[in-house]
Amino acid sequence: MEPTLDVGQRVLVNRFIYDLHDPHLGDIVVFHPPAGADNGTECGVPHPQDEACPKPTPEQSDQNFIKRIVAGPGDKLSIKDGHPVVNGVEKSDESYIVPCGNAGACNLPKTITIPAGMYFMMGDNRGASDDSRFWGPVPKDWIIGEAFFTYWPPDRIGFL
Predict the structure, then answer these.
(1) Domain 10-159 adopts which CATH fold?
(2) What is the 8-class DSSP label of residue 18?
(3) Is the whole-model pTM more than 0.90?
(4) CB count, 10 Å around CB of 22?
(5) Mean pLDDT, to the nearest integer, of 59-73?
(6) Closest residue by Cα to residue 103 from 85, 121, 129, 78
(7) Which residues pair with 66 in a beta bridge?
(8) Neighbours of 144 (CB within 10 A)
(9) In whole angstroms, what is the distance from residue 105 CA to residue 88 CA?
(10) N or C terminus: fewer CB in 10 A for the chain?
(11) What is the C-alpha to C-alpha distance for residues 68 and 30, in angstroms, rounded to an integer?
């Protein structure tokens, strides 16, 4: 999630917010990724190389990941220069990201549809992030909560 969060930075997470409303695009969330995500890039189904992973493996990992939600249930998604293109609209005003560069998943022009009840996650360091592009969307039930405040290290204290 660099540059938004540094490795080892500590955050507070609201575990109850999504009992009150659904997650929003742009939320930074802590979640369990699909099984295989913590070992690399394991998608739940075969898919073309010019398409993001459309479906996760059926089991969740025990690991906790933190990423930003870029697409939600029913959204049509492709990736252009590391930016999500959601329902035909490119989200290119992401001043908080590290540009994608020439990494393999910077351009995934084939559109996928995010399944009902699932969310597509991307890290802010787009060229070096292990995220939903490789292991698929995440079911809402696997989302632990929304990160909203960083408390460590002291020089990075503040709201996200």
Answers:
(1) Umud Fragment, subunit A (2.10.109)
(2) H
(3) yes
(4) 13
(5) 97
(6) 129
(7) 30
(8) 16
(9) 18
(10) C
(11) 9
